[in-house]
């Protein structure tokens, strides 16, 4: 028997499984995929985006995208979460107590939309959510479940879910009219003016008995 025949054969990959050297590339690779996904989703929308297309932009094998993020829906949620960062935002909004929470929430929400870097992927999710259930699910999970419900629940008020939904309807409606449909004069209004007018309503939704 030859030495070549005695050499161990390389292990075969299972379906959808990246090479070991790919899988070990670590969080830097995950972040590159996430940022590429945000770019591609924002440019093409949900329906026209593919995992293969995202992998090409990120410079990785499509199997590696599935390895880190699972399905296209999961990747979409991860890409949008980069813009919203609920884990960081919630403590900042509720940290000072109920007084002024409406203003802090309105200022945070408009700040995200006013920033061109974070606005683009949010435009993608809003536009896609109007016609695609997967995108609508992401919007519900991130904006309502992971942000507003946590804020309302921490305030210890009755009907926190209902209150969160009212706040969400108010802010998402503003986003659609100002940034998607671009209705004037709302589209060109000073953000501070919007905060001043919207904050008392959000405060009432989230804190009044």
Specify the number of helices. 12
Shape: globular
Summarize the biggest pleated sheet. none
**Average pLDDT across residues?**
78
The total count of strands amounts to 0
- CATH class category label of the largest domain: Mainly Alpha
Structural class: mainly alpha
From the N-terminal CA to the C-terminal CA, the straight-line distance is 84 Å
Task: Give an overview in words.
Keywords: DNA-binding. This is AcrR family transcriptional regulator. Residues 1-31 are annotated as: Disordered. With 209 residues, this protein is mostly helical. The protein has two domains: 20-81, Orthogonal Bundle (Arc Repressor Mutant, subunit A), CATH 1.10.10; 85-207, Tetracycline Repressor, domain 2 (Orthogonal Bundle). 73% of the residues lie in helices and 0% in strands. The protein has twelve helices and no strands. It is globular.
Summarize the structure.
This protein has 209 residues and is mostly helical. Helix content is 73%, strand content 0%. The protein has two domains: 20-81, Homeodomain-like (Arc Repressor Mutant, subunit A), CATH 1.10.10; 85-207, Tetracycline Repressor, domain 2 (Orthogonal Bundle).
């Amino acid at each position: 028997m030859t030495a070549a025949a005695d050499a161990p054969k390389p292990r075969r990959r299972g379906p959808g499984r990246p090479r070991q050297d790919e899988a070990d590339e670590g969080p830097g690779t995950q972040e590159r995929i996430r940022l590429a996904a945000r770019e591609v989703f924002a440019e093409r929308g949900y329906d026209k985006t593919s995992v293969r297309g995202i992998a090409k932009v990120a410079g990785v094998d499509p199997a590696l995208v599935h390895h880190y993020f699972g399905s296209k829906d999961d990747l979409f949620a991860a890409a949008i979460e980069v813009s919203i960062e609920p884990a960081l935002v919630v403590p900042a909004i509720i940290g000072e107590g109920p007084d002024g929470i409406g203003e802090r929430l309105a200022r945070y929400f408009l700040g995200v939309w006013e920033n061109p870097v974070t606005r683009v992927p949010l435009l993608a999710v809003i536009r896609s959510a109007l016609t695609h259930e997967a995108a609508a699910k992401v919007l519900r999970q991130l904006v309502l479940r992971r942000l507003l419900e946590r804020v309302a629940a921490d305030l210890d008020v009755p009907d926190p879910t209902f209150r969160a939904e009212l706040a969400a309807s108010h802010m998402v409606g503003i986003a659609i009219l100002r940034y998607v449909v671009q209705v004037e004069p709302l589209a060109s209004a000073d953000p501070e003016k919007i905060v001043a007018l919207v904050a008392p309503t959000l405060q009432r939704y989230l804190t009044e008995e």
